[in-house]
């Protein structure tokens, strides 16, 4: 019982800390979660974390919250998911509540605008890091179908006006079909 309390407390503090000191949304929080849970605590394998991120990304809702739910559930079941969600959403709620009180006073402040511009640049760098990490993982696996999905999804998203939700849905369907095909092929090989 004491181990569970320590685990839940560690999950809460980790997600609270990451969420409190991160600006830029889920694409910034996710690499920090990966660093904390994969590299520092070694609770989750890197490939599993990338799979969790892919699931969180394709699910409706905020990617940071979705990733927290998946990581929390993986580590501590339903209660773990609730604890990590609470840790993830509490800092933004507090920060936004405070900011809303002073919004009118600071919105036209030149210094505040410069700070926000600087944060945008930092967010762009972190998002690029996530993209490079995910592409490197796909290239490391050397699966032609994954590479094809990556390239086609990028081309369609960049050069057309197709809604990104349809691109994600199509990529998911292709991934599921490939998984089922490989599973059926493996089962057919075991029967012979």
Number of helices: 7
How is the main sheet built? none
What fraction of residues sit in β-strands?
under 5%
Shape: globular
Q: Give average pLDDT, whole number.
A: 84
* Beta strand count: 0
Distance from N terminus to C terminus (CA atoms, Å) equals 49 Å
Unreliable runs, pLDDT <50, ≥5 residues?
none
Q: Please give the domain count.
A: 2
Outline:
The protein is mainly α and 192 residues long. It has two domains: 2-141, no CATH class; 143-192.
Give a structural overview:
It is a single chain. By secondary structure, the protein is an all-alpha fold. The chain has two domains: 2-141, no CATH class; 143-192. It has seven helices and no strands. Helix 2 (26-40) runs antiparallel to helix 3, helix 2 packs across helix 5 (110-141) and helix 6 (144-159) runs antiparallel to helix 7. The chain starts with a helix and ends with a helix. The relative contact order is 0.10.
Write the layout of secondary structure elements.
Layout lengths: L1 H19 L5 H15 L5 H13 L4 H44 L3 H32 L2 H16 L4 H28 L1
Helix pairs in contact: 1-2, 1-4, 2-3, 2-4, 2-5, 3-4, 6-7
Relevant terms:
2 domains; 87% helix; single chain; 7 helices; 192 residues; mainly alpha
């Amino acid at each position: 019982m004491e181990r569970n309390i320590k685990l839940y407390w560690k999950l809460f503090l980790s997600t609270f800390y990451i969420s409190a000191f991160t600006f830029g949304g889920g694409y910034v929080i996710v690499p920090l979660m990966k660093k904390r849970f994969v590299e520092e605590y070694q609770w989750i394998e890197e490939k599993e974390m990338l799979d969790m991120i892919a699931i969180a990304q394709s699910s409706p809702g905020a990617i940071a919250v979705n990733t927290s739910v998946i990581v929390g559930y993986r580590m501590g079941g339903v209660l773990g998911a609730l604890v990590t969600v609470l840790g993830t959403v509490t800092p933004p709620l507090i920060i936004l509540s405070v900011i809303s009180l002073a919004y009118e006073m600071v919105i036209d402040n030149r210094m505040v605008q410069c700070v926000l511009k600087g944060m945008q640049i930092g967010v762009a760098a972190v998002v690029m890091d996530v993209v490079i990490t995910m592409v490197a993982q796909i290239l490391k696996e050397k699966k032609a179908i994954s590479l094809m999905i990556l390239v086609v999804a990028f081309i369609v998203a960049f050069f057309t006006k197709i809604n990104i939700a349809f691109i994600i849905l199509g990529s998911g369907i292709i991934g599921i079909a490939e998984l089922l095909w490989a599973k059926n092929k493996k089962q057919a090989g075991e029967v012979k």
